[in-house]
Amino acid sequence: MKRLLFITALATGILMANAEIVLPIDNFGNFDHWVTRNIKESKIIGGKEKVVYEIGPTTTIKGDKPYTNMGGSKWGTSNVLAKVAGVVKTSCTVTPDTHGSGKCAKLSTIYEHVKALGIINMDVLASGSIFLGQMMEPVSSTKNPYSKMNMGIPFKKRPKFLQFDYKLHHPGGSIIYSSGFGKKKTLPGKDYAEVFILLQRRWEDADGNIHAARVGTGRERYGSSTANWVNNHRIEILYGDITKHPKYKSYMNLLNSDVVYYAKNSRGKMVKIQEEQWDDPDATPTHLIVMASAACGKAYTGTVGMTLWVDNFELVY
């Protein structure tokens, strides 16, 4: 009898040790609650009232007020309030949509058309994205959009997977670059939607520069439309230097060349995150980055009509 009890206890302990724990990133990663912002643009560009959405507690804000994350939400979006030379302009590429009995986030690649008294007439390509962090409003220029994104949140755990639901409409067609200045350009290749999770160990030097080592990496790109929702999809998180790992892709490399993200330092200044090295595979991170996007290239680049729906972001331990 004692032997049986011992074996049962041992087996139960092994099962418990191997049991998965699935936890939401925060209370808003199921995208059932949204902040609605009603913003009137300047008369010089039409003076229309536009609706802009943020991921946070259900509420409505009226007026061109800079937004900061509300209710404990850790999610920023590519939706922005811009004030350039006194002109109020908005962009809304992330909107709520339905998924089952709840809501989800719909990320779209669109043209933002800007026309001012017949003098300025331009299209700016904008791709929807959501990320852990904060968009720093109001945006005062179109230069270096990444410098307006306070990317990542404090985090010290080591999850195994990022889990979420997604659906993709890929319209095909060309990759377009259109910043509103100069002619639109058609670029070679094919665009992809993407979702990624990065774990970093960051530190700040005496001059306020932020340095980072990459602790964990999970990144996927999606180039074909899905027939239906793909539920409980998982991206595995690989730890340490993964450049020799069979699952490594070039777009999983360190962020220190074409795309460099920014964060607010201890002095309140937005500075580059200088991701300089791969960390030890057993290292403890200090920050977590999660991002989903309806494009995978540089700013103002994408395929118009690309639409990515995402829902229920969770971490699996």
Model description:
This protein is mainly β. The protein has one domain (24-316): Jelly Rolls, CATH 2.60.120. Helices cover 5% and strands 49% of the residues. The chain has one helix and 25 strands. Strands 5, 11, 12, 13, 17, 18, 20, 21, 22 and 23 form a ten-stranded mixed β-sheet that branches. Strands 1, 8, 9, 10, 14, 19 and 25 form a seven-stranded antiparallel β-sheet that branches. Strands 3-2-4 form a three-stranded mixed β-sheet, with no helix packed on it. The protein starts with a helix and ends with a strand.
Brief description of this entry?
By secondary structure, this protein is mostly beta strands.
Using brief descriptors, characterize the structure shown:
single chain, 317 residues, mainly beta, Jelly Rolls, ten-stranded mixed sheet, seven-stranded antiparallel sheet, 1 helix, 25 strands, globular
The rounded Rg comes to 21 Å
Please tell me the total number of domains: 1
The ordered string of helix (H) and strand (E) elements is: HEEEEEEEEEEEEEEEEEEEEEEEEE
Q: What would you call the shape?
A: globular
Q: Which CATH class?
A: Mainly Beta
What is the CATH T-level topology? Jelly Rolls
CATH architecture level-2 label: Sandwich
| β-strand number | 25
Main sheet record: 10 strands, mixed
Instruction: List the uncertain runs.
Output: none
Distance between the termini: 35 Å
Strand % is over 45%
The structure class reads: mainly beta
User: Helicity level, as a percent range?
Assistant: under 10%
Helix segment tally:
1
Mean pLDDT figure? 92
